[in-house]
Model the fold of this input.
Amino acid sequence: MSYLDNIRTFVRVYELGSMSAAGRDLRISPAVTSARISQLEEHLNVRLFQRTTRNLTPTEQGRAFYGGAREVLEVLEAAEAQVAQLTDNPKGSLYVAAPLGVGRRLIAPHVPGFLKQYPEVQIRLRLSDRKVDLTTEGLDLAFFLGTPEDSTLRLRKIADVTRVLCASPDYIARRGNPVSGEALVAHRHECLNLRFPGATEFQWRLRTPDGPKRFAVAGRYESDDGDVLTDWALAGEGIALKPVFEVAEYLRSGRLVPVAEATPPEPIQMACLFTHRRGQDPKTRLFMDYVTDRVGAAIRQAEQRAAESGR
Done:
């Protein structure tokens, strides 16, 4: 095993906090992962991690080594990127994150076409509705809906995404169609909420005649998977706040209908985040170029079809 492979393995174990998770990420067995860490510790003559049956914690030496190890890999990646740019032959793994609905509907369908065009690139697509950290998770870029909290990252805007409050006809027949955000709260409508560890948004921001306003909606249902909320709404369990592109087919078919139309949700920004260094990597730039135009067009088409069905 090469010293460089050992360093790569250490960095992923450190960032993911788990031998098994790092092994899956690097496509190697747990035994190989453990062996690489042991070889690195033997070479350095230090313990890099404290291991118990349940926890893996970096030692002081491990924390000190991580910074330099990460820099070594970044310098190597930058050198490889320069060569790839000169030869117009990008290669290597590209780590991409996206929310579940965005990833399933808008990103994943374009991955095969990109890989056919660039056969020496591997796409590692990670889907989750939780917030991700590009640096600590070793990501090249992350698609997201909303406003980024880290101002040090670079952003490429894709679209302003129209959103809708929607429910099934069964729910409306049972509970009525609230005309506004005030009615949502006053009549204690069952609102289906997206929640995940670290979430900070517990209100719905809607447009009113007096400007944007936050409404403290309530409900017994919550999930960290946006598609689960859609399923609950289809089943008549409550009202969901959804990007139109995610529910366009159900709005067209009438399985979901808009509610509280006097105070519609504000649009939400869709963009992709990347660090300055990642943006200089040809495969990162090429993937952003390839995907963002197609995603923007798909969003516009879905919104247009949904709007036409409501006329």
